[in-house]
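Still learning. Show one?

>
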Amino acid sequence: MRKISKLVILIFMALVGLQVSVLAEYKSDQSTTLTEKQQSIIPIAAFTAQGELEQLKPALNAGLEAGLTVNEIKEIMVHLYAYCGFPRSIRGLQTFMEVMDERKAKGITDETGVEASLLNDERSKYDRGKANLETLIGRPLDGPQSGYAAFAPIIEIFLKEHLFADIFDRDVLTYAERELVTVSVISAIGSAEPMLRSHLSICLNVGYTPDQLQEFVSIIQATVGKDEAKAAQVVLNEVLKNR
């Protein structure tokens, strides 16, 4: 009887071990793949940046179906203006308004989503932006300014106070989602490899895996174009090589 009980226990432990192993493998597989929601962010940001509004419409519909809320898509449009300008951002918002009207006419009700939380932080905007940027890049920003920040100090102030404070402090999107918007925009407009290199590195800092960034490039190729994807791939290869 004791032998049978011991055998049952051993079988049970083996099954539990197998289940844990399978679950761990499943979680590992999941971490290498962008979610459907993350995937939908890429063409929305890229087509808006390029001004490809007819292609943007189905991308917006797909994003809503993938689980993006109305406010999250609005925030994507607001965020990307810092990288491709007000004209593209506003045209993207106007196109989104058209899509929303079309969906309402069909009886489709989309989730509005949360608004940005009220900010309760007594630090200056510059200090908030500096702290946010340090979180993104994973290191402190000490020492004298160099490069473009030394050549035109005011733009460094604008970046800290507006982009990394005013915009990044809005919690409608996570830092990771904002960085996905950013690399999508930069890849779409092209000829900004140093910026793309920096932000792909930040993507790794905020939790994206190399496989997920490779998937990002594949989506750029499938939606935006081979040339843009090829240029992004070159930069990604460099970033991963120098990790």
Remarks:
- Residues 2-31 form the longest helix (30 residues).
- Residues 120-169 form one domain.
- Residues 1-30 have pLDDT under 50 and may be disordered.
